[in-house]
Amino acid sequence: MKLPFFLKTLPVIVLLVVGFAMFCQAQNTLDEERFMSLKLTNEKGTQAVADWNTEINAQKVVFFWATWCKPCIMEMEAVHEAVQKGKISADKVHFITYEPINKVQAFLEKRSLQGLQVYTMDAQLIDLGIQSIPFAAVLNEKGEMVQSETGYRSNAHTVSFVKKYVEY
């Protein structure tokens, strides 16, 4: 009995899909040592060294984003709206990009996204082990990554992701 073509190729297709899914899951890791020593510039242009240990017993969510990334922008707008409505505390959610501060300032002003913790960094995403954005990392009180997600999240999922990991 001769098998139809699609049945012959089905195992190969399944292996390719599973392999691709595993690749996508594993591609973003965070080089915590490099991350802990980042030099940051906030949205006002003030230089700072990342000190993720300053809040005792407080987890933080860090979003890595870019002004050209539509899913990143949607996440930022969802968090901004939740902050404005008092559902999320802005001081425990940070947005970090590699883009120049003047570009970030213009972006924030154009979209009226003031009040968020937004930074530019002195490194490229790849230097931190991040292969794609949007990338969200949950840091424990010691600055260690305890959870992460890569890729598009709906507005509701973005807000619930933040609320799940940080106390308000």
UniProtKB/TrEMBL annotation:
- Where would I find the Thioredoxin domain in this sequence? 29-167
Q: Which first-to-last residue range defines the signal peptide?
A: 1-26
Entry keywords, A to Z: Signal
Keyword hit for Signal: yes
Q: Name one Pfam family in it.
A: Redoxin
Q: Does the keyword Signal apply?
A: yes
Superkingdom of the organism of origin: Bacteria
Output the SUPFAM superfamilies linked to this UniProt entry.
Thioredoxin-like (SSF52833)
PANTHER family named among the record's database cross-references: CHROMOSOME UNDETERMINED SCAFFOLD_47, WHOLE GENOME SHOTGUN SEQUENCE (PTHR42852:SF18), THIOL:DISULFIDE INTERCHANGE PROTEIN DSBE (PTHR42852)
Query: What is the name attached to this protein's record?
Result: TlpA disulfide reductase family protein
